[in-house]
Amino acid sequence: MELQAIGVQHPAVRQVQHIQNNTAPNRYKLFVAEGLWAHNMLLSHNAPIDTFFWCPEAIYADEAHRRAEETAARAERAFRISLRTLEKISERDKPDGLLSLAALPRWTPRDLRFGRSALVLVADGLEIPGNLGTLIRTLDACGADALVLTNRKTRLTHPKVIRASQGTILSVPTLEFEEVAEAAEWLSSQRFTTYLADTDEALNYRQADYSGRTALVVGSERYGIGKAWYEHGHSRVAVPMLGSGDSLNVSVSASILLYEARARKSRW
Amino acid sequence: MELQAIGVQHPAVRQVQHIQNNTAPNRYKLFVAEGLWAHNMLLSHNAPIDTFFWCPEAIYADEAHRRAEETAARAERAFRISLRTLEKISERDKPDGLLSLAALPRWTPRDLRFGRSALVLVADGLEIPGNLGTLIRTLDACGADALVLTNRKTRLTHPKVIRASQGTILSVPTLEFEEVAEAAEWLSSQRFTTYLADTDEALNYRQADYSGRTALVVGSERYGIGKAWYEHGHSRVAVPMLGSGDSLNVSVSASILLYEARARKSRW
């Protein structure tokens, strides 16, 4: 494969560094995919690949050679880089000689059509990227319709979100709202019953009604759900806490609620 | 408070480094607790404190001064250290001037007495400390009786296990078995019904029978449950996977199973 060789000074290399460090605007939701597993994911999801960086000296597996050719053919532009340049832009120990700038899908409320028993999770103010990625993985697994973000504190393009999502971020629809009121009104206009996950004055989550369309709101690791969500008259549901701790990990509690809703909707 | 001042060459300081880096045997299950939050946890759980290190120059909060005195009074031995020494042994940015070597409780099968509807989780070969800690936090929350470890790959004294457990590791009983057969026989002798969490040839987890005593086995992040667990005729239960991914995060799937068992046992 013949590709143009570029060095660390090339603007494409600098762009990767900006995306990694979040030091430039990123309106196309570009993220960095590294290594064989991530490239298999990009190719199988048909994700738009902006730039492909190929470092043949770092490739040992035959599969990686084949993926390199497929990725180069799919990418808007493709370059050859040295081991030294790869080390500058890679966050992994062994990126298998493959690194791409790819784009996350972008969704608007108009792209979504909900069925009678739709299921949506709202993540309000979540701070830890690994938690957000794990949540997206659960949303995929339980067949949820969308993830809605309010008071967003972590970006979806964060490497730890991508990794923890195990690639499901390429298929689970995500929407972000600037204002909680907007999100609440949109859910209401779509005939969702919205529950806030909160242990105070809450109904046991097994007793809640999950018929029709259901939206579940979970809050930040440190502060819970933001105040604005409490101004819309939504009911609260809680996973009972029977031990010495006063809360569950947020991606755990969201997953328990999501699967309860899914099981009840599907009459498992 | 007057405490003996020691420097980086002191054996107690070196011991902390060995524990942090896991470079010496640790038969008393010592772990490093850093900062105000961790010390509040030690004091409230009455955990045995082996050595307390006090760095007054790094203390800013009044509460930390009070905790320092309480911890020094409770510790087997207590020393004063400089900021420079604290930096050598601390893994945190701001350890609030408080660092202790404390001991995890140690349990044997004989310490445990099970009720009629006991609930136990077996973690086989789990590799990621954060997952193990998050699991322990869920075990506390759902009132489980114990965590059983087989094919242990990560130590309970790992700082990330302690942190993710949010202190619940001080109260949730944990048992380790050298051999899977030993664990399986012990559970059977205690009249547990054991289920393996596996998606192949498995029953939907909502259809399983959780009456009596229940043990749930989950496996490693990469390889699932080890072969030896399949030699005892246990049934398999699965959380249905409805999306593009083929698995859930292990602490998520374990939590969904644990709360299902708890809900059914408690008739929520």
TrEMBL record, chains A, B:
<keyword id="KW-0489">Methyltransferase</keyword>
<dbReference type="InterPro" id="IPR051259">
    <property type="entry name" value="rRNA_Methyltransferase"/>
</dbReference>
<feature type="domain" description="MRM3-like substrate binding">
    <location>
        <begin position="11"/>
        <end position="99"/>
    </location>
</feature>
<dbReference type="Pfam" id="PF22435">
    <property type="entry name" value="MRM3-like_sub_bind"/>
</dbReference>
<dbReference type="Pfam" id="PF00588">
    <property type="entry name" value="SpoU_methylase"/>
</dbReference>
<dbReference type="InterPro" id="IPR029028">
    <property type="entry name" value="Alpha/beta_knot_MTases"/>
</dbReference>
<protein>
    <recommendedName>
        <fullName>RNA methyltransferase</fullName>
    </recommendedName>
</protein>
<feature type="domain" description="tRNA/rRNA methyltransferase SpoU type">
    <location>
        <begin position="119"/>
        <end position="259"/>
    </location>
</feature>
<dbReference type="InterPro" id="IPR001537">
    <property type="entry name" value="SpoU_MeTrfase"/>
</dbReference>
<comment type="similarity">
    <text>Belongs to the class IV-like SAM-binding methyltransferase superfamily. RNA methyltransferase TrmH family.</text>
</comment>
<dbReference type="InterPro" id="IPR053888">
    <property type="entry name" value="MRM3-like_sub_bind"/>
</dbReference>
<keyword id="KW-0808">Transferase</keyword>
<dbReference type="InterPro" id="IPR029064">
    <property type="entry name" value="Ribosomal_eL30-like_sf"/>
</dbReference>
<dbReference type="InterPro" id="IPR029026">
    <property type="entry name" value="tRNA_m1G_MTases_N"/>
</dbReference>
